């Protein structure tokens, strides 16, 4: 067995190295988990993150980019800080043994057909580029997968082209294999659609298309073949702006929240948070931080009061937002200011206003003289934003609200039904 394995590695060194790197990373992840006593992987896998994969960080401990023990929202912060190389490394990581085994078997079968008919350096460049390119669409969709299946589908697409000019490939890679591959590509979409498996279909499809295009250029024998090959090689430059956009997702509200968290200019921080709230109105903690930032700069915090109310209108189970709202209310000192603030409540909540005032513990009978008892606040007010989930205070829920049923204990429930 070992003799056969050695001969295969010697005969197909590029394919063997491609598979070996994935296996080596998988073993390194398992060793890390054992060494750190990690029994199972959650939505955030510390082992994959420490070993180079892109992970959508939510609660970050011991992260070089932050000081707080808990981040109030999530995102691929390492990627946003410029660590673009994690995109490629993520491709070589795998979720479990079955995931790794299926990809390695597919790559081994496809690679032994491709490698003999291509120069080693061209084939190696194709594998690396295909792995990288196949992941970019996933990041545009805010998905953060792992695995070499995008590269495998690129090899599959390439072989569909190569079999046309290489009879020795066509003898092994027959119509049956083509139908099996296309069937699996379609089946993955079906399994994902019905929630059976969460599969990186964008990576599969983009890898497949990349392989088809590469193969079409390679087998071209027309008088324009040289020009087409030059243009295809030149098109790889598009990876650079694609990577830049993935690392600077200006369409993502949480990215502007991330920029605000690292901005020292208070005015620019507010600009970032306003843009973030505009793009991601369903993210309650962006609105909360914007309200707190404005709260520190306003003499009478009417603007921060309205922002917090509108954030709560969209995210009705955000209990930390209730605490921040009561903090802001405490700054209205005169009867006139309180009446104006109540007018904003009516404007935002309409017929639901009384129920919300009850939830704020500011019902109409006590609203004029309410003295809200809150923990002592530092100048930033950040302790309200970073309250741990176990520290929530109970508060009556508003009556007769029109929002669909939500879990009142969940800080992520939103009126538009978006889970963040």
Automatic annotation (TrEMBL):
<feature type="transmembrane region" description="Helical">
    <location>
        <begin position="202"/>
        <end position="219"/>
    </location>
</feature>
<feature type="transmembrane region" description="Helical">
    <location>
        <begin position="231"/>
        <end position="251"/>
    </location>
</feature>
<dbReference type="GO" id="GO:0006508">
    <property type="term" value="P:proteolysis"/>
</dbReference>
<feature type="transmembrane region" description="Helical">
    <location>
        <begin position="178"/>
        <end position="196"/>
    </location>
</feature>
<feature type="transmembrane region" description="Helical">
    <location>
        <begin position="146"/>
        <end position="166"/>
    </location>
</feature>
<keyword id="KW-0378">Hydrolase</keyword>
<feature type="region of interest" description="Disordered">
    <location>
        <begin position="385"/>
        <end position="420"/>
    </location>
</feature>
<dbReference type="Pfam" id="PF01694">
    <property type="entry name" value="Rhomboid"/>
</dbReference>
<protein>
    <submittedName>
        <fullName>Intramembrane serine protease GlpG</fullName>
    </submittedName>
</protein>
<keyword id="KW-0645">Protease</keyword>
<dbReference type="InterPro" id="IPR022764">
    <property type="entry name" value="Peptidase_S54_rhomboid_dom"/>
</dbReference>
<dbReference type="InterPro" id="IPR035952">
    <property type="entry name" value="Rhomboid-like_sf"/>
</dbReference>
<feature type="transmembrane region" description="Helical">
    <location>
        <begin position="12"/>
        <end position="32"/>
    </location>
</feature>
<dbReference type="GO" id="GO:0016020">
    <property type="term" value="C:membrane"/>
</dbReference>
<feature type="domain" description="Peptidase S54 rhomboid">
    <location>
        <begin position="82"/>
        <end position="220"/>
    </location>
</feature>
<dbReference type="GO" id="GO:0004252">
    <property type="term" value="F:serine-type endopeptidase activity"/>
</dbReference>
<feature type="transmembrane region" description="Helical">
    <location>
        <begin position="121"/>
        <end position="140"/>
    </location>
</feature>
<keyword id="KW-0472">Membrane</keyword>
<feature type="transmembrane region" description="Helical">
    <location>
        <begin position="97"/>
        <end position="114"/>
    </location>
</feature>
<keyword id="KW-1133">Transmembrane helix</keyword>
<keyword id="KW-0812">Transmembrane</keyword>
